[in-house]
Amino acid sequence: MKYLILFIISMVPLIELRGSMLLAPGMGLSGTSLIFVYFLCVLGNMLPVPFIYFFARKVLIWGKDKKYIGKFFAWCLDKGEKGGKKLQEKAGKGLYFALFLFVGIPLPGTGAWTGTLAASILDMDFKKSCIAVVCGVFLAGIIMVALGMLGFGAFSALF
């Protein structure tokens, strides 16, 4: 059951793999099962990626004209397009490497969900984007495991 909880937490936007890897030690899932937990959380974090890439932009476009959600959806599209164009100008040919670093450095608001949404809005190649995102998720996971081993996962014992 603990593994299923971590898998599901890894799919949640904003929390993703970063949160689940910090929760694992407090759930008693460190040590010998650490490699299994790592790959389980990576898989959970990557599962929504194709859906985000292919459908999130369409949902935002659909919703931008709706009464209650329209302003927010239009704002998301506008913000994503403007930010994406800036990133394209700055990164140039290194756009996929920039996506990898964006997803791989575990800071709030950066992760597979946000990176994939940006790739979708920028009409980046699906296969190359997925490779950049999965490599970024692997890097973020390694960083989070290291932080967890240093004791930053201790707060999860409260839960």
Determine the mean pLDDT.
86
Low-confidence region ranges: none
Which shape, going by the Cα principal axes? globular
Q: Note the gap between the termini.
A: 15 Å
Oligomer: single chain
Whole-number total of structural domains: 1
Tell me about this structure.
This protein starts with a helix and ends in a 10-residue tail after the last helix. By secondary structure, the chain is an all-alpha fold. It is 70% helix and 0% strand. The protein has one domain. Helix 4 crosses helix 7. It has 8 helices and no strands. The model has no long low-confidence stretch (mean pLDDT 86).
Briefly, what is this?
The protein is mainly alpha-helical.
Helices and strands, with pairings:
Elements: H1 2-11, H2 16-23, H3 34-46, H4 49-63, H5 70-91, H6 95-104, H7 112-121, H8 126-149
Helix pairs in contact: 1-2, 1-3, 2-3, 2-8, 3-8, 4-5, 4-7, 5-7, 6-7, 6-8, 7-8
